[in-house]
Design a protein that fits this description.
four-stranded antiparallel sheet
């Protein structure tokens, strides 16, 4: 079982990035996938998640209206489209399925 996050990078304030989380090793279609982030010196926090078969989404207030989560079940992939990025979005972003975690991808937003 593996979750592989990618797509992080350096972007200016107001810019956009799209993160991907490719999942392998279990029945992806029925599993909720979440994105979390951890900024330097802070605790890990939930950003967004999407349910399995019905695609219900959740967003933290801090990203609502700027981030969009989506899943492509044919590709076992969950995406996190991040627009209007702010410096406070700088963090390592992780995808998760239950107690399973990917390795994280670094997003740095420069002002």
């Amino acid at each position: 079982v593996q979750l592989q996050a990618s797509g992080g990078g350096l972007v200016q304030t107001g810019g956009s990035l799209r993160l991907s989380c490719v999942v392998s090793g279990f029945a992806f279609d029925y599993v909720a996938i979440g994105w979390f982030r951890q900024a330097p010196g802070k605790e890990r926090e939930g950003v967004s998640c999407i349910s399995g078969s019905d695609g219900i989404t959740y967003y933290a207030d801090s990203v609502k209206g700027r981030f969009t989560i989506a899943r492509d079940n044919a590709k076992n992939t969950v995406f996190l489209e991040m627009d209007s990025l702010k410096s406070e979005d700088t963090a390592v972003y992780y995808c998760s399925a239950g107690t399973l975690w990917g390795q994280g991808t670094l997003v740095t937003v420069s002002s």
